[in-house]
Specification:
Length: 234
């Protein structure tokens, strides 16, 4: 059984069907990317997995447990963390306080995880007493990732982590995500920068109007005419 199994979910905002009968899975240890145009439904899929919005039908199974109607905090506790599109940091709290918020459900080993995150992102250690709102965009993105990691997830979901970052930072971020994945973390990555996403992912799903129109290994997707035309600039 896969780590995460989404079976035919549909998600609505009132009458708007944002996700339409979508099925996908993430195996343990995989890095899977979700690609699609603006409004395709990518964020909605991640929100459904996190329990922030409920699918009208279908099911979401994580580690064999049905989480379709579970509360968001329970889902975090089970091992899913979400790095949202808008980062959702607490700008008037210190960097370290933001990180600790990510660990609010944990009782043990928090100090060790914090040390590990500081070793991944030394700049967060240097600025641990600075207000989060005063960090640069790239530093805020590192903080958002660090905070998500504080819950010690087994599956980490990223929603457009490269948004607003300078090209050299985008590359660095991609290699950080790949590194985490190679340390055993399973990843579901939503990314507009398809080239970057393909450079680190194992498999991908192409979403259009809330539907999966294609899913394959990244090698195959790169060779696909439709994908090349629509997402890789010819
Ligand atoms: N809170 C909401 N209320 C009503 N409609 C919404 C809401 N959030 C999203 N939608 C609609 O649902 C559809 C999917 O939106 P979603 O945010 O999941 O797309 P996305 O693929 O993440 O797009 P983007 O690449 O722009 O972030 C869109 O048509 C959007 O307008
Ligand atoms: Mg989105």
């Amino acid at each position: 059984m896969a780590l995460l199994e989404i079976k035919s979910i549909s998600v609505f905002y009132n009458k708007i069907k944002a996700v339409d009968n979508l099925t996908l899975f993430v195996e343990k240890g995989e890095l899977v990317t979700l690609i699609g145009a603006n409004g395709a439904g990518k964020t909605t899929v991640l929100r459904a997995i996190s329990g922030l919005i409920r699918p009208r039908n279908g099911s979401i199974i994580f580690k064999g447990i049905d989480i379709t109607r579970m509360r968001p905090d329970k889902i975090v506790q089970l091992g899913i963390a979400h790095c949202p599109e808008e980062r959702k940091l607490f700008p008037r709290m210190k960097v370290k306080e933001n990180l600790m918020m990510g660990a609010f459900l944990r009782k043990e080993g928090v100090g060790k995880t914090l040390e590990w995150i500081y070793s991944l992102f030394p700049v967060l250690k240097e600025r641990e007493n600075q207000l989060a709102g005063s960090l640069s965009g790239g530093e805020q993105q590192m903080l958002a990732i660090g905070r998500a990691l504080m819950s010690q997830p087994e599956l980490l979901m990223f929603d457009e982590p490269s948004l607003g970052l300078a090209p050299n930072l985008v590359k660095k971020l991609a290699s950080t995500i790949k590194n985490l994945n190679q340390q055993g973390l399973s990843v579901l990555l939503v990314e507009q920068n398809v080239e970057i996403a393909f450079s680190i992912s194992n498999r991908g799903y192409i979403l259009e109007n809330g539907k999966v129109v294609l899913s394959d290994s990244v090698e195959e997707l790169k060779e696909n005419d439709m994908v090349r035309k629509a997402y890789l600039g010819g």
